[in-house]
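B., you asked whether I could sanity-check this one before it goes into the benchmark set. Here's the sequence:
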Amino acid sequence: MSERKADSRPALDSKWLGREGSIYAVKGKGGLIRDVLIPNALATQLEQRRLAQPITVRDREINYLQRYDIGGGHKCSFSKASSRTLFFSNGGHSLRHSYAQERMDELKGLGLNRQVALETVSQKLGHFRAEITEVYLK
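And here's what the prediction gave me:
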């Protein structure tokens, strides 16, 4: 699925532990390109929204190359979609907090010690230091 390679960074073998799906390379707002694992059913739906040609969109003073007809990257698009579907939203950043907490519990349940689980979640979130991830676990 990926049209570009992720930036070279250390990654633990536990990064995808307990998960299956398709790997996509995504570019974050800071420019870091990293791999993410998308469940296969969702990846199938995503591919149905692939644009014939990428387009350039500008959001929050940053130009993005958009390859799919989805609202990602646009300010408040997650919150609007969540509100339409679930009738509430805590925002996209709260989703990162929930993911970090749930993934930590999942990895510890799979037998990883806290430090390895923390480093794994940190890498998944695109952090350069595991200490940053601690904020997401409160």
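One thing to flag: Strands lie at 22-27, 33-38, 50-59, 62-68. Otherwise nothing jumped out at me.
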